[in-house]
Write a structure and sequence with these properties.
Blueprint: H1 3-8, H2 31-40, E1 47-53, E2 55-56, E3 68-69, H3 74-93, E4 99-107, H4 115-128, E5 130-141, H5 148-156, E6 161-167, H6 171-176, H7 183-195, E7 200-207, H8 214-225, E8 231-236, H9 258-274, E9 277-280, E10 284-287, H10 291-297, E11 302-304, E12 307-309, E13 315-319, E14 324-327, E15 330-334, H11 338-346, E16 352-357, H12 360-375, E17 377-379, H13 380-386, H14 395-399, H15 402-406, E18 410-413, E19 416-419, H16 427-432
Parallel strand pairs: 1-4, 1-13, 2-3, 4-5, 5-6, 6-7, 7-8
Antiparallel strand pairs: 8-10, 9-10, 11-12, 14-15, 15-16, 17-19, 18-19
Helix pairs in contact: 3-4, 3-11, 4-5, 8-9
Length: 449
């Protein structure tokens, strides 16, 4: 990427894991509205489940997740009791015992659970939902807290995929983000997973971290690739200390500047390709024979709150504090404060406190944005036609992309726009042209790169 473009496009833009995006949710969608939406779902709808385990044993200073630190298990056990009750309430609100093909454990840190509570959680999902025998069950895994018994419990429950949080193997960087995680610890956990037959292994890396350089990141990538993960994600660190106060523990003067962040991203992307991985959108890389790479080639890749996915389910149900769900009628979000969430569930009420209905225009723009994010190309007229609209309705949005066209980041052919390889990291800026909710200068989002 040309250095002069780093400053020009160093913007704060949504990640577009939904549209409309979460900052535009409002209290107008509450628990009563959510319960009504659940009851209206067609009985044959395909469901995916997201379980937010909102606790960690230690705070990583770079973290942007909703989590709480505890050294005691009692709060975790209390929280899981609430999550199980929430699953019962949601299942009771549905028209029938509905089919599930994907379950995702996120956090926080799912590996803070005891093996018995992990098993009980999966059993609860199987009890209340018709979980397919070949369903994908994915778990975000912290190698510092996952022991061999936990891995065995995952295998017994049919877990098919794990995403291992690595971030960076460099000890200087690890110290700066308060996540000491030696290479040997990661190696041991991967050995346990493969011994138990959990072979679909992903790795999560982060660029833009304190004291990180492009050269040190290349070393981390080479070490990660040596484990032969099926997929690797490379996320840009979002420094938002006004939202996440613990990030104030990271001095801004040790963070890479915009030019260095671009250098890290572009060098890393090239390195993954050299190792034989296929670039997926802006931040994922997959083996050429992986289902995600196949979905990319066949234009059936999707994007949801977990990022890029092969999951095409119409409904995503979120459980736990801060969990977000997606239904045909709109988006719903749970109470973020853990104690308030638990108390609400104890009182027999769903914890939904925010959301937004999705209009016909939202669905059309969401489809345009999703195709851009996934395929790096979209025929606006063709997508508009699927929703009873015309490509000419978007002339203003297409014309606003002129600067990106002039800079060689996009190519336009009539109503089709295609992102060039140089423009790949800036696809979110192209998507923003179709975002009716986004206001210029907003600081609530992460940096474009």
């Amino acid at each position: 990427m040309r250095p002069e473009l780093a400053a020009k496009y160093d913007l704060r833009i949504p990640r577009y894991t939904s549209y409309p995006t979460a900052p535009h949710f409002s209290p107008a969608v509450d628990a009563r509205k959510y319960r009504g939406w659940l009851a209206e779902l067609p009985a044959d709808s395909a469901l995916s489940l997201y379980l937010h385990i909102a606790y960690c044993a230690e705070m990583c200073w770079f973290c942007g997740c909703h989590t709480k630190i505890t050294r005691q298990y009692a709060p975790v056990a209390d929280y899981m009791d609430a999550l199980w009750r929430e699953a019962d309430m949601v299942a009771d609100a549905l028209p029938t015992r509905m089919a599930v093909r994907h379950i995702h454990f996120g956090g926080g840190s799912p590996t803070i659970l005891t093996p018995d509570d992990f098993v009980r959680t999966v059993d609860k999902m199987r009890e209340r939902f018709a979980v397919a025998r070949d369903a994908e069950i994915a778990v975000e895994l912290d190698p510092r807290t996952a022991d061999e018994d936990y891995v065995k419990a995952m295998a017994r429950c049919g877990v098919t995929r794990t995403s291992i949080g690595v971030q960076d193997f460099n000890p200087v960087v690890q110290k700066a983000i308060n996540r000491i995680q030696p290479y040997e610890v990661v190696s041991q956990v991967i050995g346990w997973l493969r011994a138990e037959g959990v072979s679909e292994i992903n790795m999560d890396l982060v660029y833009g971290l304190p004291h990180q350089t492009a050269e040190s990141l290349m070393e981390t990538i080479d070490q990660a690739v040596a484990f032969a993960p099926r997929r690797i994600s490379l996320f840009g660190y979002a420094h938002v200390p006004w939202m996440k106060k613990h990030q104030r523990l990271i001095p801004e003067d040790v963070l890479p500047d915009a030019v260095e962040r671009w250098r890290q991203y572009t060098m890393a992307s090239q390195r993954f390709v050299e190792h034989g991985y296929v670039a997926i959108g802006i931040d994922h890389y997959a083996r050429a024979d992986d289902e995600m790479a196949l979905a990319l080639r066949e234009n059936r890749l999707h994007r949801n709150f977990q990022g890029y996915t092969t999951d095409a389910a119409d409904v995503l149900l979120g459980f736990g504090a801060s969990a977000i769900g997606s239904l045909p009628q709109g988006y719903v979000a749970n109470e973020t404060a853990i104690n308030t969430y638990k108390q609400t569930i104890r009182e027999g009420r769903l914890a939904t406190v925010r959301g937004i209905p999705v209009s016909a225009d939202d669905r059309l723009r969401r489809a345009i944005i999703e195709r851009l994010m996934c395929d790096l190309s979209v025929d606006v007229a063709a997508v508009a036609a699927q929703y009873g609209a015309k490509g000419s309705d978007f002339e203003e949005e297409l014309d606003s992309l002129g600067p990106m066209l002039d800079d060689g980041l996009l190519i336009r052919d009539g109503h089709r726009i295609t992102v060039t390889e140089e423009g790949r990291p800036l696809v979110r800026a192209a998507c923003a042209a179709f975002d009716r909710y986004l206001k210029a200068g907003e600081q609530r989002h992460s940096r474009a790169v």
